[in-house]
Specification:
The structure holds two protein chains of two kinds. Chain A is an alpha/beta fold. Chain A has helices at about 15-30, 45-55, 70-85, 95-110, 215-225, 235-240, 270-275, 305-320, and strands at about 1-5, 10, 15, 35-40, 60-65, 90-95, 115-120, 120-125, 125-135, 140-145, 150-155, 170-175, 180-190, 200-205, 230, 260-265, 280-285, 300. In chain A, α3 packs across α4 and α5 runs parallel beside α8 (about 305-320). Chain B starts with a strand and ends in a 5-residue tail after the last helix. In chain B, α3 (about 80-90) packs across α6 and α4 (about 105-120) crosses α5. A nine-stranded mixed β-sheet of chain B has the order 9-8-7-10-6-1-4-5-11, with helices on both faces. The chains are: A alpha/beta, B alpha/beta. At the A-B interface, α4, β7, β9, β10 and β13 of A face α4, α5, β7, β9 and β12 of B. β13 of chain A pairs antiparallel with β9 (about 180-185) of chain B, so a sheet runs across the interface.
């Protein structure tokens, strides 16, 4: 079996979710199979070594420079060229805004089916099944693709990273990109250093109970103490207390952190669907009858304005020990 | 000028989703159907574009304005007409429904159907939601762009068109709060994000007007599209449910201290 993985990097370092996917691919192809990584732009020595440690046998680098290396549309042709050269059974990427753009464009260009936003991949006999949440997570569909190669995008944090491999992949360059009418002129970071919700390992989120924008300061403080990303419910975003980049739920982002702390969030169906794949969920809400309490691992029915600062204090204390 | 909007009807996110006995589909008879919320945002953006060209402050001539229309295109069953009527009540001029009765459209096939219809219409720009809230593939709009050889930008949070209608400048949400300012050549396809706008409410005059607006019908064979599936749904299962866990009692400070202990010693996540 041959699997091609679209790998994402930032500042020359491999993204965690890409390492996850390459590791998963390595476990699916064994033994005798091969894993290739596709990267946008030149693969520097450090990145190539990282790709090898993650489990890649070979690397295809698209000849892209500047902002073209960010454009899914511009990279579709080089990805199709890598598919033609490598002839994989399966092409995987992360379901990030970049991955979604690129994989959908390329799969449509090749005229093959794609399973998007998957949370699991399993092999049953000869069949590869892709599991993905549907109806906002109210059901999980197992999808089989009838065309080859099978394309799939996978939610970050869906797989654990295996121990490092001892591989040093050979790099070959695939064709230059064609921006096709789309030019990324400028890139701005609205919140430098923010970890994307979909990739976050820990999230502290607040809802209507936070009452105003200023009080999000308390949530940010707790998030900083934990090394977490700040999330929000639709109510808090619609009130204008925080930007849509932070919204968790059906009209925001689906998240799968190891730890999700929901403060002052009652737990609408739409919010629950976005946080469903979190591993450990904590809720803090002054209403003991809030629906969210029926779906958590740990709950505190109390005033978050007292609980959250205390939590921050004890976490900092624990870290000092 | 023709502005296209791809519109899907979806189960309202409040609907109770029950898996049918075949284990591959859902029980559809108790579902409340609505316009996919992201497509509603796409429609709102299309209507605003039309207003900027032909509204009270616009400079286009009356003849030019008569030629500007917003057309909604849906691949759906007969009952999709009701949600299409709501889109017409919001202000779209006419609808085109591609009938999919008896078919099981996957995103590739749906994109093929919609692209064929859009090609026939010859849209100058196409708006669509970035994803549907039911199946959530997020593929159809990009597929339509690909099949029509159009550039696309998605998900878009800000959209501005130049008056000559040669290009648009979009702000794309690239994740982690990163924004890309993208200049795109028109015609193009724009995939819409929630933060792009706030869709208008349907007014009573709008509802009355919508009754007389046309919804044309077509189908795969009329569009010259070969029916084929790129995937099969092998099974649909309920998700593993999280059960009510432990409530931590006590005064706020004590509860917080206990929670930190549990997260560290029991859950081992900090």
């Amino acid at each position: 079996m041959m699997i091609l993985v679209v790998a994402e990097s930032e500042g020359g370092a491999l993204k965690r979710h890409s390492a996850e996917l390459i590791g998963k691919a390595a476990s699916l192809v064994a033994p005798g199979g091969e894993v290739a990584a596709f990267v946008a732009g030149a693969s520097g020595d450090a990145l190539t070594r990282e790709l090898g440690r993650a489990g890649a046998d070979t690397v295809f680098a698209a000849n892209a420079s500047g902002n073209d290396a960010r454009s899914g549309q511009a990279l579709a042709q080089p990805l199709c060229a890598a598919v033609a050269r490598f002839a994989p059974d399966c092409v995987l990427g992360s379901s990030t805004p970049f991955g979604a753009d690129l994989l959908v464009r390329a799969s449509m260009r090749l005229g093959v089916g794609m399973a998007s936003d998957c949370t699991g991949i399993s092999v049953e006999g000869e069949k590869v099944l892709f599991e993905r949440p549907v109806y906002g997570g109210a059901a999980i569909a197992a999808v089989r693709l009838l065309s080859s190669p099978a394309f799939a995008s996978v939610r970050p944090n869906s797989f654990s990273i295996p121990p490092a491999f001892d591989k040093l992949p050979a790099v070959s360059v695939v064709e230059t990109v064609d921006a096709q009418g789309v030019r990324i002129e400028r890139v701005e970071e609205s919140e430098p250093g923010m970890v994307d919700l979909a990739e976050a390992d820990r999230i502290v989120a607040a809802g209507r109970g936070i009452r105003n924008a200023e009080n999000f300061g308390m949530i940010r403080d707790l998030a900083r103490a934990l090394g977490a990303t700040v999330g929000a419910s639709r109510a808090a975003v619609d009130e204008g207390w925080i930007s849509h980049d932070h919204q968790v739920g059906q009209s925001g982002r689906a998240v799968s952190p190891a730890l999700y702390i929901a403060c002052g969030i009652s737990g609408s169906i739409q919010h629950m669907s976005g946080m469903r794949s979190s591993k450990v969920v904590v809720a803090i809400n002054s209403d003991p009858e809030a629906p969210i309490f029926s779906r958590v691992d740990y709950g505190i029915a109390g005033d978050m304005f007292e609980v959250v600062p205390a939590l921050e204090e004890f976490i900092r204390e624990m870290r000092r020990k | 000028m023709k502005i296209g909007v791809l519109l899907k009807e979806v189960a309202d996110t409040e609907s109770l989703i029950e898996i049918a006995p075949d284990g591959k589909s859902i029980i559809a008879d108790r579902i409340q159907w609505v316009i996919n919320p992201y497509d509603e945002i796409a429609l709102e953006e299309a209507l605003r574009l039309r207003e900027s060209l032909c509204g009270p402050t616009a400079t286009a001539s009356p003849e030019a304005c008569r030629a500007v229309e917003v057309v909604i295109v849906t691949a759906g069953l007969v009952h999709a007409q009701e949600t299409m009527r709501r889109a017409l009540a919001m202000g779209a001029d006419r609808g085109l429904r591609i009938d999919v009765e008896g078919l099981l459209p996957d995103p590739f096939f749906t994109a093929t159907l919609l692209a064929a219809a859009c090609r026939r219409e010859g849209f100058d720009i196409v708006f669509a939601g970035k994803i549907s809230t039911d199946a959530g593939w997020g593929q159809v709009h990009i597929g339509v762009a690909e099949m029509l050889s159009l550039p696309h930008v998605s998900p878009v949070e800000k959209f501005e068109c130049d008056p000559a209608f040669k290009e648009a400048v979009c702000t794309r949400a690239a994740g982690a709060g990163v924004k890309e300012m993208i200049r795109v050549r028109l015609p193009a396809l724009i995939g819409c994000e929630k933060s792009l706008n706030q869709p208008r409410y349907v007014s009573l005059p709008g509802i009355l007007k919508a009754k007389s607006k046309p919804i044309a019908e077509t189908n795969a064979s009329e569009l010259g599209v070969e029916v084929k599936s790129a995937m099969s749904i092998e099974r649909l299962a309920p998700p593993p449910e999280r059960r009510r866990g432990r409530m931590i009692a006590g005064r706020p400070r004590d509860a917080a201290r206990e929670l930190v202990r549990l997260l560290r010693e029991e859950a081992k996540v900090i």
